[in-house]
Amino acid sequence: VNQSKLDLFCKLGYGKQDICKVLENLGPEALEDDVLRELIRVGSKPQALENQAQPSPLKLVARGSCSTAPGLKPPGQDKSDPSDSLRPIVIDGSNVAMSHGNKLVFSCWGIQLAVDWFRQRGHTYIKVFVPLWRKEPPRQDSPIADQHILEELEKQSILVYTPSRKVKGKRVVCYDDRYIVKVAYEKDGIIVSNDHYRDLQNENPEWKWFIEQRLLMYSFVSNRFMPPDDPLGRHGPTLDNFLSKKPVLPEKKLQPCPYGKKCTYGNKCKFYHPERLRQAQLSVADELRAKTKVLLTLGKEEDRWNCSP
């Protein structure tokens, strides 16, 4: 019996040593499903899969040749940079600062908190857009707090001032929201703002889709920048997948049935049955019907043999 099982699993591609170890542990009367499950649990792989997992052998290069084999990277460049998989971040500086200042004060510290949050995640492309007139000394009708933070962020090439000028004593301000949406759209990044930009959505249908799918809202809780864990709703992507270029799908873990082999639900059981991997998961009623059909056919054949001369 062991020899037949050994031949069977050898044909499937498993190594003889692993099969012999499993057969010794389970005994000669072990079922094929139990042996297969134990091989999977031990971590044994068929030889075909192992050959695929092994890297291809290096090609020899003639002495004196400076060219490297195709597909090979020089040392120090084989590790992929995790920041390459993260989306660029474009922050609406006015919206973030006023939100942190409770819509009364332009709080530059709120911008710093948002920038630090994305830095800690590993984002390298972070841009903050603020109107140029925020460089001017604060007035009573537009107070500014921690204005020196703007200068520091500008030196770090993070903060960008949108242009503005004065004409006959009146300030002419360019629309900074258009800068924010345009740069985020071209970079295929994320817009950080609590503004919905409805006027820009109506202006450009491509921007409409982009704003709906790439707008990251936020809250400040005790001087802590907190975006939601589900930026696009309960059925949307997680925050990690939302901020990354290559989303990672969660692995579906099958929950084993608590009744095990004593389960009587058959194919209607919603849990995982490892012992039924190669068996048709029939319900108890279907199994009884199948057995009665077999018995009836056998009884009819016996009657035919008895009636025949």
UniProtKB/TrEMBL annotation:
Zinc finger (C3H1-type): 251-276
Cellular component GO terms, alphabetical: cytoplasmic ribonucleoprotein granule; nucleus
Family statement drawn from the similarity comment of this UniProt entry: Belongs to the ZC3H12 family.
UniProt keyword Zinc-finger present: yes
Name of this protein: ZC12D ribonuclease
Organism from which the protein derives: Mionectes macconnelli (McConnell's flycatcher)
Transmembrane region(s): none
Gene Ontology terms for molecular function: hydrolase activity; mRNA binding; RNA endonuclease activity; zinc ion binding
